[in-house]
Amino acid sequence: MAIENQQTAAAPAQQESTSFFSSVMEFFVPTAHAEAPEESEEPAEEGGDEPAEEEEEEEEEPEDPAPAIREECEQKQCAEHVHHFKHCQEKVEAGNGFPGEDCVEEFFHVLHCVDACAAPKVFKKLA
Amino acid sequence: MISSAFPRLVSRAGARAQPFAKARFSSSSSPNPSTPFFASKTAVASSTLLAAGSLAWYNHLYGAGFGSLLPEASANSAAENGMHPTTLPFEHYGPFETFNHASIRRGYQVYREVCSACHSLDRIAWRNLVGVSHTVDEVKAMAEEVEYTDGPNDEGEMFQRPGKLADYMPAPYPNEEAARAGNGGGLPPDLSLIVKARHGGADYIYSLLTGYCDPPAGVKLAEGMNYNPYFPGGGIAMARVLFDGLVEYEDGTPATTSQMAKDVTVFLNWAAEPEHDQRKKMGLQALIILSTLTAISVYVKRFKWTYLKNRKIVYDPPKPARHGPL
């Protein structure tokens, strides 16, 4: 049902692309389609109400895949950066850092590593 | 005067230089009494001393090191620049890829239900959504829910009417002062062109929306500020707004934080670049036309040159004369 609805939403965009030669002609001689796409859009609205039933079934809160994936990245690929970051955190929080010291740079190194590691995995799970 | 005198001056200078040149390359070791001061060893030593001394004095005054001679460049700290976002695998990033239009539709829902409470979208009209994310009737229905001031009518008075396709998206605040007053002094920027207006583009928007976290040790935030590593400086007036299950997607997609952030980023990317899909289509058309023309020109060249390239020039030497010279 979800897939069906996506297709109908994207339908008007597909409709514009007719044959190649007509679109090449369109490139030189622009034509305006005023009301044309409207007809085929009618069925789109019918499909609109149906997914409501599905949502009732899955009442529980959806779970974000990102935190778990990031956690795993922190433990595996980025363990070294996390180690340095934790070391800095302990030092600064204990008051042993130089005046005005913060752990932003260490934190950015962790983030840089985790983002690169997690981004493709997270996006694979997103619609 | 000078121009006429110049050749004479040059020839005179040359004449004067000659004895010096002779003296320089002469093998005699005795010092020539006519050697000028600048050729002496004393001059070499004293000028070297002057150069080294001035450098030492400069370093004493303005700080040591070669760097003090260069124009001053104060590098911002990493925190001041903000965390640079990673390139994310958005579907529309390829050279021939279109936007994910289902994502635009969901992203519009997130904008409408979440972002539009504070952020305006001034440059997008209802009609822009037609054929991109919604059908005409859907957009008409959405526009009619909003009241717009129109007029003046026959009596010269302004009146309220339901929205039309040609109306622009309603703004949450009437002016900048109202927006600042409603957000603790911070101005929520207009989102129409935000993807183009920020370094990192869509990657930045997604990273910012999902990047809220506890500040690392030693970071001091101003009152009412939230920590976000991607925001330059770290302190951002906007708090985290996206939480799992905040909206309910009509197509049944689980509305996780990452999903909503991605959808609204794609929607805002579309809002900033509505011509995006058409642009890439035209790019491909241009590629086809140019490659076709290249192929035709190569063919025509070969066709026109065929008879020249296949021509064989034969030299038929004249036969030797039957009667040689006698």
From TrEMBL, chain A:
SUPFAM superfamilies in the record: Non-heme 11 kDa protein of cytochrome bc1 complex (Ubiquinol-cytochrome c reductase)
Intracellular or extracellular location(s): Mitochondrion inner membrane
Keyword Ribonucleoprotein on entry: no
Cross-referenced Gene3D superfamilies: Ubiquinol-cytochrome C reductase hinge domain
Biased composition (Acidic residues): 37-64
Membrane topology: Peripheral membrane protein
Entry's Gene Ontology cellular component terms: mitochondrial inner membrane
InterPro entries tied to this protein: Cyt_b-c1_6, Ubol_cytC_Rdtase_hinge_dom, Ubol_cytC_Rdtase_hinge_dom_sf
Gene Ontology terms: biological process: mitochondrial electron transport, ubiquinol to cytochrome c
Chief site of localization: mitochondrion
One Pfam family, short name: UCR_hinge
Keywords: Disulfide bond, Electron transport, Membrane, Mitochondrion, Mitochondrion inner membrane, Respiratory chain, Transport
Ubiquinol-cytochrome C reductase hinge domain span: 64-126
Annotated segments matching region Disordered: 22-71
Family: Belongs to the UQCRH/QCR6 family.
Protein name, UniProt field: Ubiquinol-cytochrome C reductase hinge domain-containing protein
From TrEMBL, chain B:
Enzyme class: translocase
Keyword Amino-acid biosynthesis: no
Residues covered by the Cytochrome c domain: 102-304
Pfam families: Cytochrom_C1
One Gene Ontology molecular-function label: quinol-cytochrome-c reductase activity
GO biological process: mitochondrial electron transport, ubiquinol to cytochrome c
Positions with a binding annotation for heme c: 115, 118-119, 238
Keyword Transport attached: yes
Cofactor binding note of this UniProt entry: Binds 1 heme c group covalently per subunit.
Keywords assigned by UniProt, alphabetized: Electron transport, Heme, Iron, Membrane, Metal-binding, Mitochondrion, Mitochondrion inner membrane, Respiratory chain, Translocase, Transmembrane, Transmembrane helix, Transport
Catalytic activity of the protein: a quinol + 2 Fe(III)-[cytochrome c](out) = a quinone + 2 Fe(II)-[cytochrome c](out) + 2 H(+)(out)
Protein family per UniProt: Belongs to the cytochrome c family.
Protein name from the UniProt record: quinol--cytochrome-c reductase
